């Protein structure tokens, strides 16, 4: 059996969903004083302030839901999901994302692919008694390369350990992502595994830089993609063998 890991923002969907929800804000924009509070590595905290502002402006659950449901999937992603639906018994599929649970569930249910995923790891989110959309951090960690609220390497490592205890061993691991926070877990992949970085995005650039600086240090096979249909074709070849 193969383990297939997906990122969400700019991987499954063709946008960053945190930016997308601004479409539900008055004038579809954020005031400058909110935007100026952003600090590198503390995006989750920043989004908490954005959501509090939107709540103050009367943006409701239904408004957010509509935005999430309408975010387009990345090129070729429906093809890849269709392929995975047909070969579901061969792949265990999980999603690790620094977005939020509510948004991911809305989008995947609307697209009809929610049931493909065995597990979704993302920041907890929901609506409080005022009807405000709230967001929390996923966990704390000691990784110096990742945002304060989430290290995907830690999530993946713990997941593999948990599955090993349940006597599930994966023949190969496949990782589909785009961002710097997808590079961190992909460094732990072995030479049997495959990293699928989205072409021209940070994860792709970082694998190229690592290969230049330390040839062979990045062990997984790197298969960049522009359309997820390319990922489907690659996996098709793998299962033929």
UniProtKB/TrEMBL annotation:
The keyword Phosphoprotein does not apply. One of its GO terms (cellular component) is extracellular vesicle. Mg(2+) binds at residues 7, 9, 178. The active site is at 7 (nucleophile), 9 (proton donor). Keywords: Hydrolase, Magnesium, Metal-binding, Mineral balance. Substrate binds at residues 18, 98. It catalyses: phosphoethanolamine + H2O = ethanolamine + phosphate; phosphocholine + H2O = choline + phosphate. It is found in: Extracellular vesicle. GO terms for molecular function: metal ion binding; phosphatase activity. Belongs to the HAD-like hydrolase superfamily. PHOSPHO family. This is Phosphoethanolamine/phosphocholine phosphatase. The lineage of its organism: Eukaryota, Metazoa, Chordata, Craniata, Vertebrata.
